[in-house]
Amino acid sequence: MTVRERLREKISTAFYRHGLLCASYPVPIILFTSASILACCYPLLRLPLPGTGPVEFTTRVRDYTVPSHEPQGDLGERPDWYRGPPVAYIQQVLVKAAVSPWDSTLVPVDVFRSPLGRVFSLLEEIRNHVHNDGSGVRSLEALCLQVTDLLPGLRRMQTVLPEHGCLLVSPGNYWQNQRELFDSDPDLLKTVHQHEPKGLHTSATLRDLLFGVPVKHTGVSLYSRKRVVTYTITMVLGSYDARFLSSLRARLRQLHPSVNCSLREDHMVHVHFKEEIGMAELIPLVTTYIILFAYIYFSTRKIDMVKSKWGLALAAVVTVLSSLLMSVGLCTLFGLTPTLNGGEIFPYLVVVIGLENVLVLTKSVVSTPVDLEVKLRIAQGLSNESWSIMKNMATELCIILIGYFTLVPAIQEFCLFAVVGLVSDFFLQMFFFTTVLSIDIRRMELADLNRRLPAEAGMPPPKPGPLRPREAPPPPRPSPYTITLQTPAFRNLRLPKRLRVVYFLARTRLAQRFIMVGTVIWIGILAYTDPAGLRTYLAAQVSEQSPLGESGAGGLPPHLGVASVFPGPGGDPASTLSVLPAPAEPTPLPENQSQGHHGAPREGVPHQAQAPPLVPQISWGAEDEEGWRRLSFRHWPSLFSYYNITLAKRYISILPVIPVTLHLSPREAIETRHPQDTRHPPPFIGMYGEGSKQVINPLSLSRVAALGLAAGVLLVLLLFCLYRVLCPRNYGQNGVAHGRRRRGDLPCDDYGYSPPISEISPLLLRGHSMDIECLASDGMLLASCCLAGQIRVWDAQTGDCLTVIPKHGSCLYSCIIGGWEQRDGWDTVGVAEPENLGGGTEPGGGVFDEDEGYPLRRRTTPRPALFEDQPDLTPLIDTNFDSQPSSHLLLTPPRDGFDFGGLVERAYLEHEPPSLGAVWAMELRGNLIAAGRSSGKLELWDAVEGSLRCSNEDGVSGITALAFLNNRIVAARLDGSLDFFTVDINKPLGLLQYRGPPGRSNMPPSPCYSSEDVISCQLTRSVQCAHQKPITVLRAAAGRVVTGSQDHTVRVYRLEDSCCLFTLQGHSGGITAIYIDQTMVLASGGQDGAICLWDVLTGSRVSHVYGHRGDVTSLVCTTSCVISSGLDDLICIWDRSTGIKLYSIQQEVGCGASLGVISESLLVTGGQGCVSFWDLNFGDLLQTVYLGQSSDGQGVRQLVVLNNAAIVCDFGSELSLVYVPSVLEKLD
Amino acid sequence: MASTATTPSRGPYIAVITNRNTNLGIRGFMLFSIGVFLALVLNLLQVQRNVTLFPPDVISSIFSSAWWVPPCCGTASAMIGLLYPCIDSRLGEPHKFKREWSSVMRCVAVFVGINHASAKVDFANNVQLSLTLAALSIGLWWTFDRSRSGFGLGVVIALLATLSTQLLVYNGVFQYTSPDFLYIRSWLPCIFFAGVITMGNIGRQLALYECKRMSGKTHQD
What we know:
The complex is a heterodimer. Chain A is an alpha+beta fold. In chain A, strand 19 and strand 20 (928-933) form a beta hairpin. The longest helix of chain A has 48 residues, at 409-456. The two termini of chain A are 66 Å apart. Chain B is mostly helical. In chain B, helix 5 (101-120) packs antiparallel against helix 8 (181-220) and helix 7 (148-171) crosses helix 8. The longest helix of chain B is centred in the C-terminal third of the chain and has 40 residues, at 181-220. In chain B, 38% of the residues are buried. The chains are: A alpha+beta, B mainly alpha. At the A-B interface, helix 10, helix 12, helix 14, helix 21 and strand 48 of A face strand 1, helix 2, helix 3, helix 5 and helix 6 of B. Chain A: It holds the Pfam family SCAP_N.
């Protein structure tokens, strides 16, 4: 025993034990698994929220140096993006201006016209500021970020945004920084507004960019309450020069002092922008997700044979997802911070980990024998697949380890996640999924038990219930002999494909649901990305929690740290960051400020103003310190993007703002007025009124509300009209009828389409007195045998009875056409007549020659089968022979009719019981009937003449099955022996005439034996112990004889030399069904519910599937699929090449198990008093044909498909011939 | 007599499908569209490497490379997808390994992943990039194909495609966004190889349906 084998065995036993454990204690194990998943996911709480919001880092202005490119290990708090120079430094000059004191003679425009006008002088001042010290002369031109062209798509902004020069933006840009244009502008607001984009927008607008503060804070409005105008002049600097900036700051302070301003000026904030997902990146991302979903869909589609398919699919997906979450959680726990974009690598991780193991596990467990206990099934299934699971896992780990050694950081990180994910996935599979599977299987068994109990108790089956759409419960039809449902041509039943699609969409309301989901997602995205929406709120939350967000009012140490990565507990930022022993000194003022130019405070300075409306108060608060925070987080990226500069994965440094306070006198405001300014409507608010603040908002709100309401009403009206136009009045009433369809109601398919009704009348062949036992056909003739041992031969085309075997005496009534009712037992053995509804036009039409004793071949005058419109003649025909001896049956001698009963009875009594014995098996080839009797006697009868041609009594054990192929007969006996007979004719074989069309695959042309030939039947070989137990099935085709027995084996013999080729073992129960055809396909089904497909040439097993709970009762193959029916009333359709179950059809409990395939796509099954036709391609019920009035009790046990597209089935003591007209198509 | 025979009740639609040439056409068209789609998407991935945060226009970046590249890729993938099953049947060794749609989907996902990695991951040098991609491509083949014919065909086609691309570049018909000539050359064969394997996989899976139908038809005849 090699190491490998030993290892394999160990793994297998370990898995077995584990399976037992899981199936025994499902609930504790699931609880344990859930707990461990939660525990492993706990560290994920510390991860930042997903999003692409910017990250901040604050340093002190004083000792600021441009960070070097090399990472420095000692600065632990420094984020890794803080390397190298920033893209730009942002220096903002925050201007607050007001006209004070406010005068009643002023118009609303004055609030902002003169304050805005001051921007030009400020700009002039800034532009011309030159700092001169020992090292040289510096000006803004030298330091600022030089920009080139705007992007080509932004032509309309060319007049507003600077090009080819310093990036310096201010509200002055609206007027090209020219005072003259400003002064001559009649309507400032219009100028500002005309650059606003129309419609909905979520990113920064031009107004935000130029003003540098959010719109509502600018105060540039006719209805401004505070009458303070705020705007910024934003300088974007390419390089940092502390001295120039401080001198500029000092200069501006000097010119426009802000008295009560206590803004801190010692911190600069570095803002790092992450990569933003644009449309260009979204498309590949969406593609990968689509592929992922397709993968999951195709994988989970394979789950089968379980109670809840979707439940298990969900469990599989949950397994993979939570293993990924666990992997991230564990990695975080051990200190590895994910740097990759989670959304991007997620699909690949799922694909790498895969759902394969889960599926393999399911399949393995499901294919264990169903009669085992659930525990054992789980254990067995697990241990069967243990080796392959372990092997796969080892392979994947190896591949990933190789990937790890590529030494590329990103790939290494991916591999690390994948490894941990694989391991946790294995863990979850073993514990979580296995347990779920065991629960599912247990549920299935319970459900199955519940379903079968009433049937076994002989009670009426429970009502079909909402089981599956494919069950076929045929309730008794009130009108006998008429059946059928649907259109004459099956083809018409298949709706066009596009209609099916449309119907499918309509049924599932896919479109509506899709739109709904889309709307919800859209709203979510809007809420998330809107500047004032959830995202900024979240970002604000995060930054609020971070120590950065709040301004340290109480002399807290300067905060250095990365915002939003360590959102510490909001309460004590000092405790988390007190590691930095920063000097807590008060704000140092630049030295230049000491020049103290305090000269210009006017009377209106804030702390003197008693009446706030009168004197607009300019106050500087903490929120002004970092006013840019109130802007959209896309503010800076969009500004830079206009010049094709990306901020993705880079950072900018924002310098402390320079406050500027402007107080303008009313006189100045009046002087700068434009002539048109006064034409604005005077403010309708009271000049000093407090209520003014309520006016603007309610006004616009109510307007919007009214508009919305009107639009809504209009929409409803419109929809109502549409509904009226498009839908008929009675839509709702009829819909109900279409919705649920009960079998037996007017048929309609699933889409509510009910085709015109046509009816097929089955042709009943009556004559047998007892239940029909055997049925054989060679296409042209039909032989049947009842329990009483009587054999009747029928014409398969017309349904006429040709011969009755055994004959009695010289006079034999082979057939009398008429309306005889079969009344009691044995009276009418010889005179039974086939019921021929359609052929009633020619009752007893002189075709039979009584004296000859056998009928002429009626085939020479084929009658059209006009079955459609014929009334049921049965009740009309007087069946009383005594009173109307020869009224319409002229050719029937009355005497025969009278004394026949006694004659036959006597003959029967003396003849039948001792010598004959029941016919157990019968075969028909050519015009020879081979009948095997319970006494072991093999008889050959002439089918036309009804004479015994020869018999063989070599065996004593009863013949259970017969096969008649070419000139050989194979008989299987009760004791398990197999006898091979040869039929010899004293005429050379070459002269045998062949008749009939070339048969279908399993019906070779049969030689016709003429009546003159002497036929002998010789036993050529007898295999005494072919099987240990009785042979149950015998099939012959393609030169092979296949036997199945209760000893669990199948044997294959060659027909020529009766040599046993293979003994096929694989079933764990007796063989109950075998199928073999010309293409050498062999399928066998057993009592264990298993179906095996074999290769007859090699004797190897091709596939082995478990499909039924209970015996497999019948098996048929087409070229592409295998159809099986079982005792569980299930019909399963399997793919022949792969052994995958395509679908199954649940039939009513107690249905017959007979199957037949009429064409490649038409399946016929026998039921309780009816036969059903199914479309094999789709599994739809096409038609149900009821055979008689009393459908209860008698099931169709045997069903033979003739090659003229008719089927024959037994129905109690009657035979039923059903034509399937729609498949009758002329080939030639 | 009794010359009626059964023919399966198939609608005209199915009959069209069974027509061999039509079927070939349908398969080819499907493969072509898959190829065009993948080419567009992967091109987008490659373009991202050099583009700004705000591409001026998405549409223009989709079609930023020459317009004839996606149709070429589509044609090539159609040819490859038809060639693979054909070779399989010629050699007489039908491909049996993992013939399921889920496996094919997995293969496509891994292929996109390889492209993604080559576009997004920063490698230290070109050798590392090429080696990694080569290992990934071989892994792809081993995981999803494992047939010698597949490997041989993949290598041959990849070499041919690289050669033709280089010829195009020499003649100046086509230009890469990145001027680094060696850089491009290093990863191109690997991507081509992985693409060939993927398209072959899809083509085989598509051909599987036809095989079934054809076998059914011949049996019937």
